[in-house]
Write a structure and sequence with these properties.
The complex is a heterodimer. The radius of gyration of chain A is 22 Å and the shape is globular. Chain A is mainly alpha-helical. In chain A, helix 12 packs parallel to helix 17. Chain A has a domain of about 210 residues. The longest helix of chain B has about 30 residues. The radius of gyration of chain B is 19 Å and the shape is elongated. Chain B has a single domain, classed as Orthogonal Bundle (Helix Hairpins), CATH 1.10.287.3510. Chain B is mainly α. Chain B contains three helices and no strands. Helix content of chain B is about 65%, strand content about 0%. Classes of the chains: A mainly alpha, B mainly alpha. The interface between A and B is large, with 38 and 33 residues.
Chain lengths: ~525, ~120
C-alpha cells in the first residue's frame, strides 16, 4: 500500500499541520482546538504503533525525504547519502512510542486542566510543536536535522513553561533559565556538528559512524556532546534548570517535558553507541556516564527530601530517576568492548536502563498529573497547606499510591521490574554502585511517604470541604497510565523481550543502525 | 597563518560569550552572550566551507574551471541564523516579562525560585 511507505513522515506531518491549524481553528471556535490536538496526536500514536510493529517484525526502516522512492538512500552511485533521512531502528521507535503516548495523554489531560479563555489555541499549537520536535529528534538520521529539532523543542518547551507568565513572574524566571541552558547546549551541538562536517564532509549519522576514527577532533566533539546532552537531560551537576522548569510548567506540560529530556538522553546514547561505539575508550566514557548517574541519583533524592512544593519535590525525583538510566546504560557502555562481561551482565544492565526510561515516563507522568489534579482543586502546591484530601479525591489518591509505589520500586509495579534488572546486573560490575542505587530507592520511598501523609491523610480540612474529584478526562488519563504501570509490572518479560531487548541490541550492534543506509557495507 | 585568523575569531567570540553567560548578572547581557556564541559558531561553519579563491556556489552561473566554496555549510548557517533570530526574540521577550513582574533585570534581585 502506498500510504504505508510514508508512515515515518506522517508521524510528524499530522501534528505539524495541526499545530499551524490550531490558531486558525481557535479564531472560529475555542472549544474544538483541544480536540483537534488530541486527534492529531492520536493519529500519531496509531502511526507509531503501526511502524513499531513493522520495525520489530521486519527490521529497521528508512525514509528519504525528497527522493523518488522513500527507501532510496544512495541514488545513482553516491558513496554517502545527501538527502535528509529518517532512520528508525528499534531504539528510535521505542522512544517514539513513549513520546506518542505521553504527548497524546498530555493533550487529553489538558482538555479539562487548561483554562479555556486565555490563549488556548497557542497552548495547543506549542504542545503539538513540542511533540513534533520530540518525534523528530528520535526518528531522524541526520545530525543537523537533529539540531533543528532540538532547537524547536527548546523554543516550544520554554514558551509552554512560561504559559502562566502573564500572571506571575516565577514561570518566566524558570523559562529564562531553561532557555539559556538549552540554547547553549543546542549551539554546542552545532559546534560539534561543524567539527564532524569539517573532518568527514558528511552529516548523516550512519555515514559518519562508518568513517569515524576517534581522532583528537572526535574526542573534542565527544567532550562537547556528552556534557551538553546530559545537561539537557537534567543530570547532576547540570541540573539547576530542572526543578524550576518542571515545577512552574502546567502539569501536562511537565509530563511531556520529562519525555523531552529523555529524548536528549536518547541522543546521548545514540551518539555514544551508534556514532562512536567501540572506537572510543569505552571504560573511561562508561565511567563518566556512571558518575553522572550516581551524582544524579544521590543528589536528586537528597534534595527532594527537603522540598515543600509538591511539584518541585517530584522534579528532584525526576533527576534522581534519570540517574538510574545513566547508571544502567553506563555499565553497559563500560563493558561494551569486553566480550565476556557484555553478554553476562552488560546487556542486562542496559535493558534495565532502557526499560527504566519507559517506566519513568509512565509513573513520573502519572505523579505529575496527580500533582496537577491536587493543584486544580486546591489551588496550591505547598504540602504544608494541603491535608486530608483522601476524603474527597478518592481516585486521585489511588493513582498517587500506584505512582509512588512504582517510583519507589515496590513489587507488582513497573519501577520494580526495571530497578531489579539494574540492581542485579550492576552488582556484578561493582557491588558498591548497586548498594547506592538501593539506598536511593529507599530514600525515594521515604520522601513519597511524606508527601502521601501530608497531602492525603489526616482529618478533612475546613478550607477543602468543597473540594470534588477532578473532571472525567483527567481521571481517564491517569487511569490509563495506572493500568499501563500495573501491566508493565505484572508482565515485564513480555515488554523486555519484545521491545527493550531489540532496542538494546540495535544500540550495541552499530552495524544494525548504519547498515540500513549504507546497504550492508 | 593568516588563513587561521577566522578560527581565532571564532574562539574569541565563543569565549567572550561563555564568559558573559558565567559572570554577568544582567539579563540583556545574557542575551548578548548567547548571540555572541551563536555568531562564533556561524563563522566557524562558514569558514569550514571556504576554499581559497572559490566563487559563490551557484551552479549555472559559475565560470568554468573555477573552484566553488562548499554550499552545505552556507545552508546550515542560514538555518542557524533563522533559529538564532527566534531564540533572541524569545529570550528578550522573557527579559521584558521578568522586568514587568519583578521591576529589575539583575539576576541577583530577580530570583524567587530557590532550593
Amino acid at each position: 500500500m502506498k500510504l504505508m511507505d510514508h508512515i515515518p513522515a506522517l508521524i510528524i506531518a499530522v501534528p505539524l499541520l495541526a499545530a499551524f491549524l490550531s490558531p486558525v481553528v481557535g479564531k472560529i471556535n475555542k472549544k474544538v482546538v483541544g480536540i483537534l490536538a488530541a486527534l492529531a496526536l492520536g493519529f500519531s500514536l496509531i502511526f507509531t504503533i503501526i511502524l513499531a510493529v513493522k520495525i520489530l517484525s521486519v527490521g529497521p526502516q528508512v525514509y528519504v525525504f525528497g527522493a523518488k522512492s522513500p527507501s532510496l538512500t544512495l541514488p545513482s552511485g553516491l558513496k554517502f547519502p545527501i538527502r535528509i533521512i529518517f532512520q528508525i531502528d528499534a531504539m528510535g521507535i521505542f522512544m517514539g512510542l513513549i513520546t506518542a503516548l505521553v504527548s497524546f495523554l498530555g493533550a487529553v489531560y489538558s482538555l479539562a486542566f487548561i483554562d479555556k479563555n486565555n490563549g488556548i489555541d497557542k497552548y495547543y499549537s506549542l504542545l503539538l510543536l513540542l511533540a513534533v520536535s520530540m518525534f523528530g529528534m528520535e526518528l531522524t538520521g541526520d545530525i543537523f536535522n537533529f539540531f533543528v529539532f532540538l532547537e524547536i523543542a527548546s523554543m516550544a518547551s520554554v514558551s509552554l513553561i512560561c504559559y502562566k507568565g502573564t500572571e506571575r513572574g516565577e514561570p518566566v524566571e524558570a523559562g529564562f533559565k531553561y532557555m539559556v541552558v538549552s540554547s547553549i547546549s543546542a549551539l554546542m551541538v552545532l559546534f560539534a556538528i561543524g567539527i564532524f562536517y569539517g573532518e568527514y564532509d558528511v552529516l548523516n549519522m550512519a555515514a559518519l559512524a562508518s568513517v569515524i576514527k576517534y581522532s583528537q577532533l572526535d574526542k573534542i566533539a565527544l567532550g562537547i556532546l556528552v556534557p551538553v546532552l546530559a545537561m539537557k537531560a537534567g543530570a547532576v551537576p547540570m541540573h539547576m534548570w530542572t526543578p524550576d522548569a518542571y515545577s512552574e510548567a502546567p502539569a501536562p506540560i511537565t509530563m511531556i517535558l520529562v519525555a523531552a529530556s529523555q529524548a536528549s538522553l536518547y541522543a546521548l546514547f545514540r551518539v555514544v553507541f551508534s556514532l562512536y561505539n567501540i572506537t572510543l575508550n569505552t571504560l573511561v566514557v562508561g565511567w563518566i556516564i556512571i558518575i553522572f548517574g550516581l551524582l544524579s541519583m544521590f543528589i536528586g533524592v537528597t534534595m527532594a527530601i527537603i522540598q515543600k512544593d509538591i511539584k518541585r519535590l517530584m522534579a528532584y525525583h525526576a533527576i534522581s530517576q534519570t540517574g538510574y538510566m545513566l547508571l544502567g546504560v553506563g555499565v553497559g557502555l563500560a563493558v561494551l568492548a569486553n566480550p565476556i562481561a557484555l553478554p553476562e551482565y552488560g546487556i542486562t544492565a542496559m535493558e534495565g536502563g532502557i526499560f527504566h526510561i519507559m517506566n519513568h515516563a509512565l509513573y513520573k507522568g502519572l505523579l505529575f498529573l496527580t500533582a496537577g489534579a491536587l493543584f486544580y482543586r486546591t489551588g496550591t502546591r505547598d504540602l504544608d497547606k494541603m491535608g486530608g484530601l483522601a476524603h474527597s479525591m478518592k481516585y486521585t489518591t489511588i493513582f498517587f499510591i500506584i505512582g509512588a509505589a512504582a517510583i519507589a520500586g515496590l513489587p507488582p509495579f513497573n519501577g520494580f521490574a526495571s530497578k531489579l534488572l539494574i540492581y542485579e546486573s550492576v552488582y556484578r560490575f561493582n557491588p558498591l554502585l548497586s548498594i547506592i542505587a538501593m539506598v536511593v530507592s529507599i530514600l525515594t520511598l521515604a520522601s513519597f511517604v511524606k508527601v502521601f501523609h501530608s497531602a492525603f491523610l489526616g482529618p478533612q480540612l475546613p478550607q477543602f470541604k468543597e473540594v470534588k474529584e477532578v473532571p472525567q478526562s483527567m481521571v481517564l488519563t491517569m487511569a490509563v497510565l495506572s493500568c499501563l504501570i500495573i501491566f508493565f509490572g505484572l508482565f515485564p518479560d513480555l515488554i523486555v523481550k519484545n521491545l527493550v531487548h531489540p532496542a538494546v541490541m540495535s544500540l550495541i550492534e552499530q552495524f544494525k543502525y548504519t547498515g540500513i543506509v549504507l546497504g550492508g557495507r | 597563518m593568516i588563513g587561521n585568523f577566522p578560527y581565532v575569531t571564532v574562539a574569541v567570540s565563543i569565549g567572550c560569550g561563555l564568559y558573559i553567560l558565567m559572570f554577568q548578572k544582567n539579563l540583556i547581557k545574557l542575551a548578548i552572550g548567547i548571540n555572541l556564541i551563536e555568531s562564533g559558531i556561524n563563522l566557524f561553519l562558514i569558514t569550514l566551507g571556504y576554499r581559497k579563491g572559490g566563487v559563490a556556489p551557484i551552479y549555472t552561473q559559475a565560470p568554468a574551471g573555477k573552484a566553488m566554496v562548499l554550499p552545505t555549510p552556507q545552508a546550515l548557517t542560514l538555518t542557524s541564523i533563522v533559529i538564532g533570530v527566534a531564540t533572541s526574540a524569545l529570550v528578550l521577550s522573557m527579559a521584558m516579562m521578568i522586568y514587568k513582574h519583578y521591576g529589575t533585570i539583575e539576576v541577583d534581585k530577580a530570583r524567587r525560585l530557590r532550593g
